[in-house]
């Protein structure tokens, strides 16, 4: 069974809109077909999401207004907010991001002689315990 990427508002019992970022290209094409829209629009939407970094569906100016309204009715544009960005003398960059629900996660870019590595917290309260990361503190 496919897991639906929506949340339920505990206060009202209503189902929140799904994040458009949870859809893969083919899933978005299928959704557009179900809505009576042309599937090629999915590639335009992905361009706005991943290349142009649109902040709202209204920004997607090459989409028809009724489609933008439909997207806004069914989906949200969930993005991370940067709370803190710190750069150390060795070039390591730490980011503290806030999720839509107000909880924070951290990402660290570490620069090495052989290349770069990135630690991306994939859950709040990560238990790995890296000394450079604040995500462990939430445990």
From TrEMBL:
<feature type="domain" description="Dual-specificity RNA methyltransferase RlmN N-terminal">
    <location>
        <begin position="21"/>
        <end position="76"/>
    </location>
</feature>
<dbReference type="GO" id="GO:0051539">
    <property type="term" value="F:4 iron, 4 sulfur cluster binding"/>
</dbReference>
<keyword id="KW-0698">rRNA processing</keyword>
<keyword id="KW-0479">Metal-binding</keyword>
<keyword id="KW-0489">Methyltransferase</keyword>
<dbReference type="InterPro" id="IPR013785">
    <property type="entry name" value="Aldolase_TIM"/>
</dbReference>
<dbReference type="GO" id="GO:0070475">
    <property type="term" value="P:rRNA base methylation"/>
</dbReference>
<keyword id="KW-0808">Transferase</keyword>
<dbReference type="GO" id="GO:0030488">
    <property type="term" value="P:tRNA methylation"/>
</dbReference>
<dbReference type="InterPro" id="IPR040072">
    <property type="entry name" value="Methyltransferase_A"/>
</dbReference>
<dbReference type="InterPro" id="IPR048641">
    <property type="entry name" value="RlmN_N"/>
</dbReference>
<keyword id="KW-0411">Iron-sulfur</keyword>
<dbReference type="GO" id="GO:0008168">
    <property type="term" value="F:methyltransferase activity"/>
</dbReference>
<dbReference type="Pfam" id="PF21016">
    <property type="entry name" value="RlmN_N"/>
</dbReference>
<keyword id="KW-0408">Iron</keyword>
<protein>
    <submittedName>
        <fullName>Ribosomal RNA large subunit methyltransferase N</fullName>
    </submittedName>
</protein>
<keyword id="KW-0004">4Fe-4S</keyword>
């Amino acid at each position: 069974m496919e897991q639906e990427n929506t949340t339920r508002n505990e206060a009202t019992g209503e189902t929140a809109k799904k994040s458009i970022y949870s859809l893969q290209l083919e899933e978005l094409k299928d959704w557009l077909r179900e809505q009576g829209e042309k599937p090629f629009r999915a590639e335009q939407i992905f361009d706005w999401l991943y290349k142009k970094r649109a902040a709202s569906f209204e920004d997607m100016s090459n989409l028809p207004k009724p489609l933008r309204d439909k997207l806004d009715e069914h989906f949200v544009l969930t993005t991370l907010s940067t709370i803190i960005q710190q750069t150390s003398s060795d070039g390591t960059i730490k980011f503290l991001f806030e999720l839509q629900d107000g909880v924070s996660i951290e990402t660290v870019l570490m620069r090495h002689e052989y290349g770069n590595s990135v630690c991306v917290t994939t859950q709040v309260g990560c238990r790995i315990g890296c000394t450079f990361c604040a995500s462990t503190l939430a445990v």
